[in-house]
Amino acid sequence: MTISDRIFEKLQEKGMTQKQFAAETGIPESTVSDWRKKSTNPASDKILIICKVLNVTPEWLLSGIDADGNRSKPIDYYIVDKNSDQGKLIETYNNLSGRDKIYLLGYLEAFKNMQDK
Q: Which residues of the chain have pLDDT under 50?
């Protein structure tokens, strides 16, 4: 199965039209249509936005392997929108000094432990 096959499979599963998908990804509808008609795949710079809109991992889109599948190891990272709360947190963390990163991780661990009680 190709990348475009997986995209159309997921669109059908979600009940999403090519037009809706094109609008949400910013990819021209004619390009999406060409993937089906010409059996081509999306350009690499479109993979992450496609994954976000379809709520799938790049591994699944590129290979068909699920995170919990038998053919791959579990995913050990997240894909996060930069404008989300999580994305802003990561950006802030990345802008901290090394010492401040250690402090923040300590504070988070202490806060987590308080919540677990």
A: 70-73
